[in-house]
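Hi R.,

As promised on Friday, here is the backbone we talked about, encoded as structure tokens. Could you run it through your design pipeline when you get a chance and send me back a sequence?
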């Protein structure tokens, strides 16, 4: 299923090639973590590459480790630890599954040894013990929320329409680190499928109902993402519906964050196509509520 892909294997660890993902949102403008000046003001080296783009680098390794079924019933659950900037080299790695279970460890490092992200992946049944699910279960009670003071755990938003058009896929393929045949040829599924970054994009429309943005929230960035195929994969040029629900709210010395779960539904069959767990961090230093 992969094109132009090679990997090495060391002691049951699949190691992908070094890639240099682009910051495709570098021109997003002031106020975005992907903007050079905004990110540098907050202490980053430059505008950051979105974690959802890094997820695409794991796909061919996971197909090799878990099989083609990963595209329709698989998961990828990642916590982001170190932000990279436009064109910085990174390398993804995946453990082969053990005989007793289908969950594997996955991670990404840069050449200096910085851990960009890590987590788990699986295939088959929904992984209730994934890396991000464990983090959500361990979120401590927040003590001083200002940015997210009005975000209610359990709040759910309405169903909203969502689709990714062919033009969106074509734009993604122009800069993707790891192209798959399933993105460009109907083949196995009869339609072209979304890349992981586009799956995230397809499930974010429900976010607006949970946290209507205004100038007080400051700069946000992805802290963790889990993608779980239920009756996947998700196709381009297809009309879906999505909604989101708040799962947890927390804080660190530098950020406030919340987790939500988004569900992508096929209105024709009324089936759940896939779900997403998303953690969004807001930098306290960027919010007037902390000044």
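Update: got your reply. Pasting your designed sequence below so it's all in one thread:
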């Amino acid at each position: 299923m992969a094109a132009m892909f090679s990997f090495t294997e060391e002691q049951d660890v699949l190691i992908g090639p070094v890639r240099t993902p682009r910051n495709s949102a570098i021109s997003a403008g002031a106020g975005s973590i992907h903007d050079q000046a905004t990110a540098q003001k907050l202490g980053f080296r430059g505008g950051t590459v979105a974690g959802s783009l890094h997820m695409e680098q794991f796909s061919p390794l996971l197909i090799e480790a878990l099989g083609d079924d990963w595209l329709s019933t698989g998961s990828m659950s990642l916590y982001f630890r170190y932000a990279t900037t436009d064109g910085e080299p990174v390398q993804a790695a995946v453990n082969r599954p053990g005989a007793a279970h289908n969950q594997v460890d996955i991670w990404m490092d840069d050449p200096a040894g910085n851990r960009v992200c890590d987590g788990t992946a699986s295939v088959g049944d929904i992984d209730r013990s994934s890396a991000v699910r464990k983090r959500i279960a361990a979120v401590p009670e927040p003590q001083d929320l200002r940015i997210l003071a009005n975000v209610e755990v359990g709040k759910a938003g309405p169903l909203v329409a969502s689709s990714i058009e062919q033009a969106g896929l074509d734009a993604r393929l122009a800069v993707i680190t790891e192209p798959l045949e399933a993105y460009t040829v109907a083949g196995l599924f009869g339609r072209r499928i979304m890349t992981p970054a586009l799956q995230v994009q397809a499930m974010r429309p429900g976010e607006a109902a949970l946290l209507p943005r205004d100038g007080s929230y400051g700069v946000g960035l992805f802290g963790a993402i889990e993608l779980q195929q239920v009756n996947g994969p998700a196709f381009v040029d297809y009309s879906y519906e999505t909604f989101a629900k708040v799962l947890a709210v927390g804080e660190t010395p530098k950020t406030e964050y919340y987790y939500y779960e988004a569900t992508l539904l096929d209105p024709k069959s009324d089936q759940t196509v896939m779900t997403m767990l998303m953690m969004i961090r807001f930098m306290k230093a960027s919010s007037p509520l902390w000044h």
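One thing I noticed while checking it: The radius of gyration is 18 Å.

Thanks again,
M.
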